[in-house]
Structure formats: C-alpha cells, structure tokens
Amino acid sequence: MKSLIMKMWNTMSRPAKHISLGxxxxxxxxxxxxxxxxxxxxxxxxxxxxxxISCHTMEDNVYPELQETVHWKNNAGVRxxxxxCHVPHNWTDKVARKMQASKEVYAQLFGDLGTPExxxxxRFALARHEWDRFSANKSAECKNCHQYEFMDFEQMSPTARxxxxxAAARDQSxxxxxKGIAHHLPKNMDSSGGMIGELEQVAHSTSFAKDGTYVxxxxxxxxxxxALSAEAGxxxxxxxxxxxxxxDSAIQVEISGWRKDKGFGRVIQEDFGMNIPVAxxxxxxxxxxxxxxxxxxxxxxxxxxxxxxxxxxxxxxPESLVQGYDAIWDKAGxxxxxxxxxxxxxxxxxxxxxxxxxxMFNGMSxxxxxxxDSSALVLKYLQKHSSDFSDQQH
Length: 394
Hints:
This protein has 394 residues and is an alpha+beta fold. It contains 14 helices and ten strands.
C-alpha cells in the first residue's frame, strides 16, 4: 500500500507530458467555469431593480415616477422593472450596455446627479440618450413585451388602429410616439398646451353642406363605405376635403392631391413634387379604382419619379373639421413659437422649402413633447408658410 501511495505521489508531482496537458486542460476548464459563473452571477446581480435603485439618485427621482404609471401597476398584474426597459436582453448588447453605464457610476460617485436639482438639470440629456438608444434599436426592449404581431388591432380605436398598423408595417420605434410613459418629461419640454382640444371646440360648431370645403384639425379615420365599417386610411391634420354627400351619421368627401407612382401609392400629397401629406391610405384602398381615381401624370425633374394626380372618394364622421385654415394656423404658429425656442431662436417658416422642413422639424421635435396630432399640425403650418408659399426675406 505504501509503495502504491508513493507511486501516485511521484506521478502527480512529476507527471508525464500527456498527463500534464490533460491536467492543465481540466484545470483551465474548471477555472473557466468558475470565472464564467462568477461573472454571470455578478452581471445578474447588477441587472436587478434592487441594484438599480441602490443609489439615492434613482431611488429618489425616477423610481417614484415609475410607480405612478401603468408599467408599475395595472389590471394584468405585469410589472416592468428598470432592467426590463433599460438593459438589452441579449448577452452581447447587455455587456456593451453595462460598459456604457460605467459613466453613470462615475457621475454618481462624483456628485453630478447627487441632488434633485442636479438631476433635473441633467434630465434632458439623460432622456435624450435613452431616446436615441431606443430609436437605434427600434425599441427592442419595449418589443420584448409589446410585439406588433401579437396586437389585437380590433380592440383599438379607429385612429389608433390605423396608426399602429402603419407603425407595424415600418417596424417603427415605440418611443417615436410614446415618450414620457414611465418617467416625467424634462421640464423644458412643453406640451402642445391643449391646442387640439381648443380646435376641437371650434369644430363643434361646424355645419356641413354639399360642395363645401373643410379642414381637419387632427388625424381622422376615413372609410370605404357609408356604414363606416371598412377602413380606408387616415386624413392628416390641416388637410382640406370637399363634401359631396351628407347623411345623418356620415359625410362623403373627396381628397384631392398627387401621389408618387412608386410602391402602393398610399400617401396622397397636397401638390405635385411637394411632400406635404394630405392622407395615408391602406394598401387595399390605395389600389382600389372605386376609391381612387387617377388623372394626369408628370415626372419630377429633381428626382426623376413620376407623379399622378388623384382624387380619393371616401366616407368619414362629420367631426373635427373646421371651415378655413385661420384658426389652425393661429394655434399652430403659436405652438411653434412656444415649443421650438427651447434651445435656440427658431428659424422663420420661410427659411426653408416645404420639402426641407420635414427633416429640419424632425430634428427639432426630439427636444419638445408635441403629441402626434399637434406635431403634424405644426409641421404642416411650417410647410404651408415655407419659402415655396412666401415672398418673405430670410
């Protein structure tokens, strides 16, 4: 027995080459498992709500805000915690996000966010960083729970249903429309100030007559039939329609404009060569000759794309329409002056062309909190008062 023990000791203390390689491989594997397990354990600990709110900055500021929202308490009993929304779920992106978060640890340690006042001063920058991240990954964290293909569009209001179907077709980022759903918005991000509500009050007094023209104050669903059962698309805010038939519960209208002879031709623009949207039709309605009549065609020399003049005949509810643009332009112009001066002096509407304004406005709109209808009204105001329609110097 003693000789056997001595032999084993000698073997272990002076192993042959092939045994040495095996021992090293086994040891490396065990060490790797221990390291990997420890790393993932630490990563998961840092990926809990308890860890996220372990500092006063989070616990005293954004955490109470979350508790006021539907993401905290709802009739379905489903709660979204900090890492559910702010940490990617796939491993590689999660590690990259944790590395980025090291800057937040630095800010916490050195007091940049240590008081509510300091946090509020940085709130916009912090929010903008997250909005940019959500925009880049098309709100991947939101879509871990809210997936377009699982939505029951029939449970939505007509306007929401059409907009969500269009968003689903583009796989649009959720935060393009849904900022401020879990935390307070930065204080300098003024809302539309009730602009749409005020215009709706004006619209209540509108009476409709055959051959009359009226202007929409918000996105409005349009339908293929008098019973308003077959959706045809959406009429954009600040868009003119001509009434051709009036019933007790619906009006039949004509939407005139131009569309590019490309794809399904779903978007009707106000005029040739100008990207000023009047209506967005469902694919089936856009291709339905009974809904859309086509007339002359012209080629845009700048882009080389052919355009066709069209008239869409649809039905809609007799609501949210006013006579003339005056009330709309007054409210939209006021909103532009109020909201778009947060960071700098805003350019005059005539400073850009109608086609240049959408790109400029999209860059500016990230700094304000205009709802979808208000945003569309302000953009239409800028386009209709652009250098294409104005002789003002700029």
